Amino acid sequence: MLPLDSLKQKLMKNKAVILVIVAVILFPTCLFAQTVYINEGFKHCDKVFTRVETLPDFKNGITALEDSLTAFLITHDSMPEKGTKLYSLIITKEAQVVDIKRRMSDPETEHLYVQFLNSTSGQWIPAKQNSYTVCSELYIQMQFADNKVKVKLYNGPGVTDVRPLPKYRRGS
């Protein structure tokens, strides 16, 4: 019986050693493992610019974007009579629309505007910085009045977020 007990003890020691070796190898691997892309839309964006030299633009012009938005909202019977909506989004190097955020709008109709902005994916001319195509954040302000919409594109936060600089007095 003694050799069998001795064999069991050696086997138990080997299991402990194997377990420790596996833990030493796997723990750092799990600890430092990183997902390459959180969102598929960002896979071509090594950096997202908040300010760029040349803003992204709608391929057929702002008027076409306004007409498309008007038609979309009329089709969904959701055209506001008046008011302002502000959304931010990211236009990738491949002209895809990702990461749409409501900045100033009513939450009840947010899904319609997100659906519309997603539908414009691929219809943008990406931003340029130092003559390179880059991923950039874009603010879209939609102003409604008399069943018409006026769209403005901003490089970074819209004019509603701009604060005047404090006055500087000489000698103080």
Beta-strand residue fraction: 25-35%
Class inferred from helices and paired strands: alpha+beta
- Total DSSP helices: 3
Q: Note poorly predicted spans.
A: 158-165
Binned, the helix content reads 25-40%
What is Rg? Answer: 28 Å
Q: How many strands in all? A: 8
Notes on the protein architecture:
This protein is of the alpha+beta class and 172 residues long. The chain has three helices and eight strands, in the order H-E-E-H-E-E-H-E-E-E-E. Strands 1, 3, 4, 6, 7 and 8 form a six-stranded mixed β-sheet that branches. A hairpin with a 5-residue loop joins strand 3 and strand 4. Residues 158-165 have low confidence and may be disordered.
Keywords:
alpha+beta; 2 domains; two-stranded antiparallel sheet; 32% helix; 3 helices
Provide a quick synopsis of the model.
The protein is α+β, with helices and mostly antiparallel strands and 172 residues long.
What does the secondary structure layout of this molecule look like, with pairings?
Blueprint: H1 2-32, E1 48-49, E2 57-58, H2 62-75, E3 82-91, E4 97-104, H3 110-119, E5 124-125, E6 127-129, E7 132-145, E8 148-154
